[in-house]
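User: Structure please.
Assistant: Input sequence and predicted structure:
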Amino acid sequence: MKRRGRMLALVASVAGAGALVWTAVTPRIEASTVPAAVPSNGTWKPDPAKYGVAIEKNVKIQMSDGTILLADIYRPADPATGQPAAGKFPVILTQTPYRKSGQLGTSDGGDSYLVQRGYIEVVADVRGTGSSGGTWQFFGPREVQDGVELVKWCAKLPGSTGQVGLMGASYLGINQLLVAGAIGKNSPLKCIFPVIASNDLYRDTAFMGGIPDMEFSLEWLSLRADCDIQPADDLSSDPERAIETELEHTSWLAGFYVPLLTNVERGGDKAYDETFWQVRNPSNVLSKVVANGIPAFLVGGWFDLFQRGELMNYVGLQNAWAGRPVNAPMTATQPVTGRYQLVMGPWYHETSGSTQLEEWQLEWFDTWLKGEKTGMADTKTPLHVYALSQGKWFDTDRYPFTAAKPTTYYFAGGRTGSANSLNDGWLLTTKPSVLTGSDGIAWTGASLPLGRSTEQWSAGARASAEQSLGLPPSPETQNDVGYEATGLTYTTAPFTSGKYLAGPIDVTLYATSTTPDAEWVATIEDVAPDGTAYPLTEGALLGSFRKLDTAHSWTVDGQLLVPYHPYTEASREAVTPGKVERFDIEVFPTFAYIAPGHRIRVTITTSDTPHLIPTQAQLPDLLGGYYQVQRNHAYASFVNLPLAPAGSFKTSPVVWGPSGS
């Protein structure tokens, strides 16, 4: 999963091992034209490469507690002599747990694009990783304090203007937000550029609906272990210290990974959204990022690991700037600012690099670190989104999208003739009038892999392999992987006019279980006239976590769109066998064009292998379970779909990224 590219080859996250794949997810996404220039006031253009690159390896930086971190420094160089160029330059800092020697675009680990245009880059191994000393903190308070100290060190670096920016993807994007929230006002840190960064580590990736994401977590833990057992970068220059550091790191592997996994599997405190996760969540520092006056340009993907969190980060930053609670939905009338922008495209969590992304970074850093009048931050529509299935980019401002009105569709009986499922039921806008009616489904404990979910939570591994081989993306339909045959489906009639399915989705089930718990997975699909179903997004919920926190849930026009479950040990409540219970499932957001003649389908399954694997503590209450999903007047299960008519969104003059084919 670790590969070189340009800036976005900064690998991995708390649950991630890469950056964006610049590729489409389904064959219906149209190929883009040649990517347009970055939006500006019409006068800014990317500077041509002017400098060479001078490299200083394994620079030792002492933290306030005495721990030594190692960094590589890349300076603009005189092309004729190869020596550092005269003058002062802003500094861009990247902090990585994945070994500084392989993080950026060149064989030496640096990103020549920005350095050649007048920036110093510093790439540092975070504490306890790579060649740096100490104990790895996994976004802990000491690691964040290191980031603050590194920013101040960069500001005083010889040849520095004193202006510092942060960049990086995934883990390297998350720590940007945490550092920007901790650094205080009037600091040298003037802007950040977090790519594919989480908002809430527990909800976004580590768990979905309270069920562990084992597919990605195990992959990520193996990547981290692989990074730590490789020889330290300074082995040849300082072998004694390098060996000591290596022994310290490898001993920490057993001291961190095994206890963490054991704790989660046994239902310990780390299986809940409590202190361990809360102190590491960017959502808790977004108001401080804004108070500290630090602009942020965010990049995310509709099929990324942090598909949910990237939009939540945008909302939190915009809300904080407008003086509103960071965790509330944006309102239709609140002001917005170009200081906080998000590009949300059709991407996974990998990349092979993009010159266009480098241009975005260059313009952002030119704006905030060099004071150039680029106009980039003057936009009144700082939210840039890609419409799946249509291949178009739109510029808007608020999320949830104000044009998308929640429409309630109720589960109903009968057969639509569109799905080979256990029931093939309907989605209707009228509430059921029948007094009885339900559909049965067993807890399976396993499902066939290789669908959209497997691809997303493997960080786009298959798409990345296909791209590297020059192959078109594989169709990812649930028809191909057999989900419908083992699940319940509810499908609308064909739409007579085009609609946008845009934003977060709530699926509310009224159901009984024969066991003290239940596992629910809800997938939203776009169904073509020929019956092919394209999965767009999904959500899940462990029934014992069904307690709803209405104060933190999002409702629009009185309709629930984002159910918020505390996922704490205190909120956990066993399901009463045989009793009709309510289960509100948060389905991660999407933005897709539903063409005339197409339908929307909700598919309900009881597992998602290998993505979601219940723990040893959760499993006994699931074994042998059989559920009845109610669809009658008293207990009317439903889905709230945010729908907008065609033409509701402003087409962007910019192609914000390659969209593949």
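The chain has two domains: 7-380, 405-447+483-645.
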